[in-house]
Amino acid sequence: MIPLRDNVPTRSFPVVTVGIIAVNAILWFWELSGRGVDYHVVKDGYYPCSLHGPCEAIQIGGTVVTHHLSWWEGTFTSMFMHGSWEHIIGNMLFLWIFGNNVEDALGRVRFLFWYLAAGVAATALQTFVTLTFGSVRDASIPNIGASGAIAGVLGAYFRPGAERDLLRPHLLPRDPSRLVPRNLDSPAVVAGGLRPHPSGSDRRRRSLRAHRRLRLRGADGLPRRQATAAPTDLLMREFEEHVRRALDALLPDEPYLPAKVTIYRLPLGYR
């Protein structure tokens, strides 16, 4: 299945996501120019054998390439290189659809760090598998592509433990009255296969349980028994009633976007 879009709005323009796509596009056209894609892949890709040799020479046309980048240089250059139009278009499509929402949730700096860290982790895993179970020839094959970094983005998008459907991330509405239905394009996909939408009563019950956990802590983060009980309890009761009214306004069979309750320290503008 190839996703085409999602219908989850973002709160800000995805600067880092667009920047990463632009860097990948620039490097792709740079690969196409000059000596061609094959030469740059062999010359500037990542080689597992560069971490633990030996490396075999690779012949491109009439040129034998025996020297390539060091392992730490190749780790980052390979993360932005691709081997074909299908390779880069597919990767950039997934990055655009899912990356903008992850960037919106994490913030620009943390998203950039997450993207690079995921790419490095994927390269490290590939290196371990190749050096452990492969031959010298296997370790002398250049590795390129942003797939590992984008897999990390997908992992952040479909975070374990969150109830959501395909193409819907865990965004954070700041007002529970904005828990509006989000009509999705596809059913949920989990490890066991397709999963139907939960019923409306189940969704309300789970959400109310989550929001009731707010009563375990005060506005200052201290346990409830150590906080000033009377005024804060009143706010929490009012907030819970507001959430109940918002959930009751939903149609029984329509999915909604779940809220992350940890953002509600002093709800509804109370101070």
Second rung of CATH, namely the architecture of the largest domain: Up-down Bundle
Domain module count: 2
Distance between the termini: 48 Å
Tally of contiguous helical segments: 9
CATH topology value of the largest domain:
Rhomboid-like fold
How would you concisely characterize the structure shown here?
The protein has two domains: 15-157, Rhomboid-like fold; 197-269, no CATH class. Helix content is 48%, strand content 4%. The chain has nine helices and four strands; from the N terminus they run ααββαααααββαα.
Care to describe what's here?
The chain has 271 residues and is mainly alpha-helical. The protein is 48% helix and 4% strand. It contains 9 helices and 4 strands, in the order ααββαααααββαα. The strands form 2 sheets. Strands 1-2 form a two-stranded antiparallel ribbon. A two-stranded antiparallel sheet has the order 3-4. Helix 8 runs antiparallel to helix 9. The two termini are 48 Å apart. The C terminus is likely disordered.
SSE map:
Elements: H1 15-32, H2 37-44, E1 58-60, E2 63-65, H3 71-77, H4 85-106, H5 108-133, H6 136-139, H7 147-157, E3 188-190, E4 193-195, H8 200-212, H9 229-248
Antiparallel strand pairs: 1-2, 3-4
Question: Which keywords apply here?
Answer:
271 residues; mainly alpha; Rhomboid-like fold; 2 domains; two-stranded antiparallel ribbon; 9 helices; 4 strands; elongated; disordered C terminus
